[in-house]
Amino acid sequence: MASAELQGKYQKLAQEYSKLRAQNQVLKKGVVDEQANSAALKEQLKMKDQSLRKLQQEMDSLTFRNLQLAKRVELLQDELSLSEPRGKKNKKSGESSSQLSQEQKSVFDEDLQKKIEENERLHIQFFEADEQHKHVEAELRSRLADLETEAAQHQAVVDGLTRKYMETIEKLQNDKAKLEVKSQTLEKEAKECRLRTEECQLQLKNLHEDLSGRLEESLSIISEKVPFNDTKYSQYNALNVPLHNRRHQLKMRDIAGQALAFVQDLVTALLNFHTYTEQRIQIFPVDSAIDTISPLNQKFSQYLHENASYVRPLEEGMLHLFESITEDTVTVLETTVKLKTFSEHLTSYICFLRKILPYQLKTEPDGLLRTNYSSVLTNVGAALHGFHDVMKDISKHYSQKATIEHELPTATQKLITTNDCILSSVVALTNGAGKIASFYSNNVDYFIASLSYGPKAASGFISPLSAECMLQYKKKAAAYMKSLRKVQQSLEKISKLEQEKEHWMLEAQLAKIKLEKENQRIADKLKSTSSGQLAGLAQDSAAVSNAAGQDEAAAKAVPEPVQSTSLIGILTRTSDSEVPDVESREDLIKNHYMARIVELTSQLQLADSKSVHFYAECRALSKRLALAEKSKETLTEEMKLASQNISRLQDELTTTKRSYEDQLSMMSDHLCSMNETLSKQREEIDTLKMSSKGNSKKNKSR
């Protein structure tokens, strides 16, 4: 499952990578086109610059030529002014000079006219060149703005792609980590599921064997012990206790709880609706605090004032019905006795509603056949939906009525508030009716299907009386099963106590045998040894260091009393006139050894129990250690595979990252080159502007 998810992630990554490659190709194509356009614009700018320089040179030559012609005209005018007084003095010679001056003047006029025409033509050409330059400059400016916007868009696209690439990388890394954790958990769950399946298979096998044995035993008991089959007749079968269906009871209790909540909401909405309607009658169309209302409204208000006594029992009846449905009961229509009280309360509320209306109908509920239950339940669902539709219509019309009344100039704030309260209660009532209708429609199939719940191989209960008898039988059967369970538990306790009794009886017999052997051994030793050897025996048994001094004191019969400090206790207390009592010594030795034997047996039992406990713990620890080693080996293998997958994914990510970084660097280089070309074009345009401005100023000055 984790590998499938990883493969899906890789496929998504490949799709995104292919999309990015296609976008990159489009961007490359756009960059190449822009470079070609920028190169063409550069060529156009160069051509325009050359033509502008040529025109500038022509303009300079023409201005120089104009200056020469102006000087020549001035010289000619000076000569003409000088020649005029001479003509007055020399009339005779004036005829020849006047002829010469006229010829020269005509020549000069023709030359001047030609120069003026040429100057006008050059001015026209210069004006046309200036207009064309301005037009080209405007086109280049618009083209430059378009290129700048396109460059900004390309940069935004590149930034978006880089951001999206980083986000996808982070997302893939997070998804990778989540998938690794999920794969580990899924592998653990798979192992647990495998172990559970093995255990379940073993349990299923054991249960199959057990059930097969029980089936054979039950069939033999039924064939031998059952005198007749009471499920054959419906009258007898209705008295049988059905199989306890706890799931059915929990489902019915859950449904009853939901119905209780819906009925509570509906009761609250009905109480609000009736109360606010009564308040509205008291203030509209005549306020009862100011003037007397009509007898009809008084009667209607009196009826509405009684709504709580009819509406509250609905909630109480549904609550009692919910409390009557428990895990121990059998819930069908015949056994839910509390449903009758709820239906009676509902009938009384319907009668109250009909009393509110101008007419009233008499209803007498009768018993229903079991075959008609499904149709009745279906009709109840249709009635609930009809009630919901009616409440929607009431809400719609009353909202329109309230809006019309609010617009009236005579509407008081109290009336507006009451109308709003009635509208809210009507909306709550509509919502409650809709919830109940949808709830009933969703569960009507279950209600119809639950009618067949009853004794085995029968259509159900015959009557509520038989259902009541069945419930009593069910209680008796449950009590009988509890008593049987108690008897079984007491029998098990008795068997355990008998086993413990036998165990302790065996322990007592063993202790008695050991005691007899020890008494026999002590008696033999006392008979074969003297009193001094008796003290030596006490020294040997208790390992006391002062036994030799006691032997010497006993042999010399010192008159002072001598007391032994061995484990046996006080053995002798003698004097010159006293002789040690053999029976008292035997009793002391017997009692001491009996106490010692009891102590040693208790210590031995404690040591045995501790050793058994330690042995069980060691076995459990060894098993856990073996399982831990196996799990460690599997986990190391899984860790190796996971590390290999991680390294492979990291390599793929690094390769994709490098490819993306290379593409982004190439795109950034292209964009930088485009920016440089655009900046150069801007500089050239600025120079052209400056030169054109200078030329225009010169032309103006000229």
Automatic annotation (TrEMBL):
GO terms for cellular component: early endosome membrane. One of its GO terms (molecular function) is mRNA binding. Residues 11-112 form the Protein phosphatase 1 regulatory subunit 21 N-terminal domain. InterPro entries: PPP1R21, PPP1R21_C, PPP1R21_N, PPP1R21_six_helix. It is found in: Early endosome. The keyword RNA-binding applies. It holds the Pfam family PPP1R21_helical. GO terms for biological process: regulation of intracellular mRNA localization. Its main location: other. This is Protein phosphatase 1 regulatory subunit 21. It comes from Propithecus coquereli. The gene is PPP1R21.
